[in-house]
Design brief:
Blueprint lengths: L2 H26 L11 H35 L1 H26 L21 H8 L21 H8 L18 H12 L9 E2 L6 E2 L3 E2 L5 E2 L1 H11 L9 E2 L2 E2 L2 H4 L5 H14 L4 E3 L8 E4 L9 E3 L6 E3 L17 H13 L2 E2 L6 E2 L7 E3 L5 E3 L16 H16 L8 H20 L5 H4 L1 E5 L2 E2 L6 E2 L2 E5 L1 H31 L1
Helix pairs in contact: 1-2, 2-6, 11-12, 12-14
Protein name: RING-type domain-containing protein
GO molecular function: ubiquitin-protein transferase activity; zinc ion binding
Keywords: Metal-binding, Repeat, Transferase, Ubl conjugation pathway, Zinc, Zinc-finger
């Protein structure tokens, strides 16, 4: 199968896959509530669509690269002509220098034309005849010099020769190199939509003429995209890199990342995709050693190639003889006891300890495993309640105080009643729309300082709150507050008129 047939087969397969996805999506359209988060099936369809479109882009890039390669081959004749002109100029200079020493020096005979400029000889044939030799070798000139252009002696000796071999510098035959192919592929990845000369990066907000468009439609400049993948190797909650809850394909963007970052990300991908991990027991090393043993019978001593110490694959401490039972880690047992006392829960997949601060009992660990906070079973496989009412009311109160401030110490009854209604409205909204859907409706900016609900950091200048639902709820609360103030003013006015 030649390249054209291979590319046509890839293109046809990707197009058929896109047509099948359209039919599958038409079958589930209208079966979910508007504004609800994407289901696993929809996310799978999105990933399949991204892969098919990446295949189509790959085929297009291959065709562009092949066209550029054929164009380079056609330019060889012109390059050889320029090289022949340079060779003659160099010979003239050498002859002028020889005249300064010996005025009787014989000039080179111009009667014999170069094979490059001989009619019917063919420029490409001269290149093909000489492409096997190195242009810097001694055979390229008449002397042992490594200078790529011929000397006067070699020029004079070449006049009497009828050989078709040229003594000019011939460039190496162009081949499909990694760097050139990468640059062509990079330009196609960072290509903007038709009709747009620049876009703003979703991370830094700067306008750029080269940006990567994520599957959700957001744009990233090259530096911010690299920082996103770099942070995903440090913070597991950011792995795999995603935007608007849609995963960014590493295979699609790896050509625009540095080789060091690609190597680092591939190593961390293997680590983060391992549920039960084994690390070097040496605290100063802590190198990832692969998956841990699930039973004591499967235990073995794992050698760390960084600090050259061995670790037991089951108890994850210093390695010991296989017939010696693994000892219980006293420090780990103390942490587990403290977790049971405080009501914490451990992830069934990676066994990390988690604590519920706000929100429902639906927990998503940093290893991406979803489970119930009460019973630790896989999410939606138990009959536990979804909310704790006290936590729900507390979260609603925090959001109302965040958006409208704290009531004064001596508040009017109308203000207290309006605040209670606002808290009730916010609690009901959280009960139905507790999932974060800012990827569907964007962020809204609020000036002033405050604490971030995700990381807890104090931000000085502004905060962003997410989702159209949050904006609609805030607008409804503002209308409710205005109505309460208006009713209070009317009551005060009626009281003054009566008195």
């Amino acid at each position: 199968m030649d390249q054209d047939e291979y590319e046509s087969l890839l293109e046809l397969t990707a197009q058929c896959q896109l047509m099948d996805l359209e039919e599958l999506r038409a079958g589930i359209k209208g079966k979910t509530r508007a504004g609800s988060p994407s289901s696993d099936l929809e996310l799978t369809y999105n990933a399949m669509e991204a892969e098919a479109r990446a295949t189509l882009q790959f085929v297009q890039d291959r065709r562009i690269a092949r066209g550029a390669g054929s164009a380079s081959q056609e330019d060889i004749d012109l390059i050889n002509i320029i090289a022949e002109i340079e060779r003659r100029e160099q010979a003239d200079r050498q002859y002028a220098l020889s005249l300064s020493v010996d005025p009787d020096a014989a000039p080179p005979s111009p009667s014999v034309a170069s094979p490059l400029l001989t009619a019917g000889s063919g420029f490409g044939s001269a290149y093909r005849d000489n492409q096997q030799g190195s242009p810097f070798s001694s055979s390229s000139t008449g002397s042992g010099s490594n200078w790529p252009w011929p000397t006067a002696e070699s020029f004079a000796s070449s006049q009497g020769s009828t050989s078709s071999q040229s003594s000019v510098y011939n460039p190496p035959k162009p081949q499909a190199s990694t760097s050139s192919g990468k640059s062509t592929f990079v330009s196609s990845i960072l290509r903007l939509p038709p009709g747009r000369s620049s876009v703003d990066c979703v991370i830094c907000g700067d306008f750029t003429a080269q940006a990567y468009q994520a599957p959700c439609g957001c744009f990233y400049d090259r530096q911010c995209l690299a920082e996103l993948f770099d942070k995903a190797t440090v913070d597991e909650s950011l792995f795999p890199p995603r935007c608007c809850s849609q995963q960014i394909s590493f295979a699609q963007v790896r050509s625009i990342l540095s080789p060091r970052l690609v190597q680092k990300f591939e190593a961390k991908s293997e680590e983060f995709k391992t549920p039960n991990r084994l690390y070097c027991h040496n605290a100063a090393c802590s190198r990832f050693l692969g998956p841990a043993a699930s039973t004591e019978r499967e235990k073995s001593a794992r050698l760390c190639t960084q600090c050259w110490r061995t670790t037991c694959s089951f108890c994850k401490s210093v390695s010991h003889a296989s017939h010696v039972p693994c000892e219980t880690d006293a420090a780990a047992q103390q942490v587990l006891a403290l977790g049971r006392q405080e009501g914490w829960q451990s992830c069934p997949s990676c066994h990390h300890m988690v604590e519920l601060d706000t929100g429902c009992y639906h927990m998503t660990c940093r290893c991406r495993h979803e489970f119930c906070y009460l019973c630790a079973r896989r999410w939606k496989e138990c009959t536990c309640p979804q909310w704790d009412e006290d936590r729900l009311i507390a979260q609603a109160e925090r959001r109302i105080e965040r958006d409208f401030g704290v009531l004064p110490a001596v508040a009017r009854p109308a203000q207290v009643e309006a605040r209670q209604q606002d808290i009730f409205r916010m609690a009901e909204d959280l009960r139905v729309n507790h999932e974060c859907d800012h990827h569907l409706n964007g962020f809204f900016r609020r000036g002033g300082s405050g604490n971030c609900e995700s990381c807890g950091n104090w931000l000085r200048d502004f905060l962003l709150y997410a989702g159209l639902r949050a904006l609609q709820t805030k607008q409804a609360l503002i209308v409710n507050w205005v109505k309460a103030e208006h009713a209070l003013s009317r009551a005060r006015l009626m009281k003054e008129m009566v008195s």
